[in-house]
Specification:
Blueprint (H helix, E strand, L loop, with lengths): L2 H10 L3 H20 L7 H30 L7 H24 L3 H9 L1 H18 L3 H7 L1 H6 L3 H16 L4 H39 L1
Length: 214
């Protein structure tokens, strides 16, 4: 048995509900740290940042699942839905902290969205992510059929917008947000290359079939 087989065997033993449970409790732990002063002198800002970064990390993990399986053989497919749902949950808590603890005055929310480009970009990412979360269930998969996969390609522009939002929040060219964007673009670039390879292979197969029948 190879190392990859052992890893996949261990992954198959992980109940999906434990992923949901750990993910659900994670923001609660961050809230506790903020409430007890463990996040420094600006706990709301630190909490908001931590939740947003957690959501971006989960989003990248979701994008990583397919290339990870293709390149290494490690299979996280059965956990992909849980990771996707938790990504939306993390981003929702990030948004709620901004709305309830940061802005507080609801009448100022719309002004901030329009006046601050980084908030505009972040809200656009959240809006694109919302239908993905709503349709992350077996009923939607059956109902939408082939359109379900097309809809869930919205995760790609969502990831780009989320990464750009993170860069813009810093207001300076910091290394960490740039690394996140580079990882996202690399993962999306890999998908483009794979799609082109499949398209080329189909065309070659079609050409060979035409020569055989002619």
């Amino acid at each position: 048995m190879t190392v990859v087989d052992r890893i996949n065997g261990g992954l198959r033993k992980i109940p999906v509900w434990t992923v949901y449970t750990i993910g659900a409790l994670w923001p609660a732990w961050l809230f506790y740290l903020a409430a007890t002063g463990a996040m420094g002198v600006e706990p709301i800002e630190a909490l908001e940042h931590a939740l947003g970064e957690l959501g971006l990390q989960a989003l990248i993990l979701g994008l990583l699942i397919t290339p990870l399986r293709a390149v290494t053989g490690i299979n996280l497919i059965r956990l992909r839905r849980a990771i996707g749902v938790l990504t939306f949950y993390f981003i929702s808590t990030h948004l709620l902290v901004w709305l309830v603890l940061d802005v507080q005055i609801l009448s100022e929310v719309w002004k901030d969205i329009l006046k601050r480009p980084y908030i505009t970009v972040g809200m656009a990412a959240f809006l694109l992510m919302t239908p993905l979360a709503i349709t992350s269930n077996n009923w939607s998969l059956r109902k939408l059929g082939p359109s379900w996969r097309k809809l869930h390609r919205l995760v790609y522009p969502t990831a780009i917008l989320g990464s750009v939002h993170y860069i813009m929040v810093g207001k300076t060219w910091e290394l960490e947000p740039l690394v996140y964007l580079a990882v996202v673009l690399t993962l999306l670039g890999w998908r483009v290359l794979q799609a082109r390879k499949k398209s080329k292979a189909r065309l070659q197969s079609s050409a060979r079939a035409s020569r055989v029948t002619s």
